[in-house]
Amino acid sequence: MTPAPVSARDARSGRWQLSARTLAAGLLALGIVLVPLYSVLFDDAYTLTLASRILVFALAAVGLNVLLGFGGLVSLGHALYLGLGAYTVMLAHVAGIDSGWTQLAIMGAVVLFVAVIVGWVALRTSGIGFIMITLAFSQLFYYVFVSLKGYGGEDGMRLQQPSQFGRLSGNGVALYICLAVTLAAAVYAARRLAASRFGLVLRGARINERRVTAVGTSPMLYRLTAYVMSALICGVAGFFLANLTGFVSPAYLDWTVSGELIVIVVLGGVGSIGGPIAGAVVLLLVEEVLKSWTEFWPMIEGPLIILAVLGMERGLWGLLAEHRWPAVEKEPRACRE
Q: What pTM value is reported for the model?
């Protein structure tokens, strides 16, 4: 059944209806805008850092959602691209390249090269085979970076200075704003992608690959393109993560990070546009609250995630789509005349 528009008017009653999803999107946007203002006014660096971390994982989840939500491909190795994005910053700095734009260009080239190879190999399989191959490549790179003792090895390495963007360098508020703008651009691109022929083929291949092939369209190139696009978005998230934490570690590439991204997408709503953001906000805030209460927070968080997923089949964003309230009643034309 096709969901109703985000904000729709009931022609028979003349009433405008406000979607819960629209309200939630507005509140999320308002919260994102108010965080840096609050941080500056109250000198609260902690809230700014936490909100920036949420945006980083929301951005990475938007990237994964392109593959998982539209293409139906479960990747347990997208932490690889988060880690590559972070390590590009550190390795470029060690090589004497401090320009942020240059680092971004290098990161894009590296992630593109790796994603094409990994995607071409992994997409030869499907189901559990695809999951295991993406996981294997991620763990392969994990152990490669662990073996680099000159760059911190397993313990990681502190970033001596952030990427240089002129006067914006090292400014937490500027980093947050850049993150928010990048996330908005990624969400807009995902929305356009979902409505395009490209997105239609991806979703069609997810539902019935044989029928898509029967009409003369090969899903392989579409899936590979979607895989590379999702990897690039995760790479940009890793670039921001390194600049946010000032630290780079092989732990960024661990399979548990990939699992966390999958949980964010599923919790928010697989295939939805705003789901990855809602999932990142809820999961990381709940995680932060539980950490402040007890050191055994994973034992509480796990069952909460299971209950949330079982109780909301379509995720948080899908649950919001089921609720509507009449907002403004429009005067009938006959009365105006």
A: 0.87
